[in-house]
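Bumping with the actual sequence this time:
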Amino acid sequence: MPIARRAQFARATVLFTIAGLTLAACRKKPAAAPAPAPTTRVNQDSIDAARRAQEERDRAARDAAARDSAARAQARLDSIVNAARATLNAPVYFDYDAADLRDDARGVLEAKLPILTANSGLRIRIAGHTDSRGSDEYNLALGQRRASAVKDWLTGRGIDGGRIEIVSFGEERPGCTEEAESCWSQNRRAEFEVTAGGERLTVPGGAQ
């Protein structure tokens, strides 16, 4: 083979080898693709954080609802107990110069009866009062008869007489001071005071 031809062949071989090496190098570069993996981890952390935040909000909402429900229940109970106390304290009224119980007075006492029955430790004082007409001695005796009439009605329906104290103030403690029937009618009364056992009141039906 002529020398010139051999030289051309050698150069062609070298060029072909270089091209092959370059092509091989280019084919190996895509191997670095797995790098995006940290993005997946970041996304999962965000999802976990969002889930925990939602769980915390849900827990706070449940706690708030439970507190609100308990507060409403306590408010209802307080209302029932306060109504029972008002019933216990409600006075009864009498006709002029009389100690007999009127129908309206019996209705007031009927309302007191289940509360007194449900609270065996409850003790009360019944105070008899009169209007200003008549002597002091007569009015003290009349007030005593009025308080006794109320006590007798309660004990006749099963309330232990040892739980009931009676006292008379006659005309000494008027609820109204005008000299007119509208005031006298308010002063002819028996008043009630809880003297023991009223701190924790049981309402008929089980509420306390």
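The tokens above came from a reply further down the thread. The chain has a mean pLDDT of 86.
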